[in-house]
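User: Some background: our group keeps a shared notebook of sequences we're curious about, and every so often someone picks one and asks for a predicted structure to add to the entry. Today it's my turn. The entry only has the sequence so far, pasted here. Could you supply the structure so I can complete it?
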Amino acid sequence: MEPHLLRTFAAVARLGSFSAAADELGYTQSAVSQQIAALEQDVGAALLRRRPVALTDAGSRLLEHTGPILLRLAAARADVARLSGPPPAAVVLGATPLSGVDVTALVAVQRAMPRVSFTLHVAGRSDIATRVAVGTLDLGLVDGVTAPSDPLSLPDTGQLSTVVVGERPAVVALPVSHPLAGRRGLRLADLADAVWLDAPEVATPPAQLRALARAEGFRNGLAYPGTDAAVFWALIAAGAGLALVPEPALTPGLRGVPVTEPRLVHRTDLVHGSLTTPAAAVRAAFTP
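Assistant: Of course. Here's the predicted structure to add to the notebook entry:
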């Protein structure tokens, strides 16, 4: 399965159109058709129905593998480039909105290396590790809620190193006027009937809440696919839904009630591949 055939297959599956995939990839429609046919011959199964374009069962299964395969190939290319390329004159650090990035430490590193440009890029948690793997970010700070002994759930990106740079108590964020705001503690499973803010790039998604609580429920409230922390806090304060967050990050108008069961922590990990000297300085500044 050649990588360029898999990329073409993924584009057709995503766009639902041979012609749209051809426009996006810069091929003719005939070339796209030939590539899909070559891939089908290679795997020995029909992957796409043509009119209308739809995945077969075999195509659906292959598509599950395609994303991770292409990501690992891109990660390998980026890792080799980091080791063999010229010394960089820039460092790009990615951070999720609630990662608690130590901007004082970052500025100190910048001042110590005046000939290197530093950029801080805030993005959603699904984006950071992937962008580090493929080389568009040099390092990434990713946060999430998990059991104390469990790692954060990150994409399978290959040879990335992960360092825990901070752990904070995980609390349920509620408006101060919420009936449960005065409680000293809450069992997560007892909140299964509550409405939760659907903000997967900032907060713990409802699907993960169900896994953590080992309970059904956790209804999606208002959907917020963005990464602006100020908007996120304002939505909780307005009653759009509850959220699991790190206690120190709470803003005025909100109350954080500790989760008593199960035991949970809000963790921030620093992820990176092979490090150049400027990026290694950032890692050293953030590592306890």
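Suggested note for the entry: The chain is about 40% helix and 25% strand. The chain has a mean pLDDT of 89.
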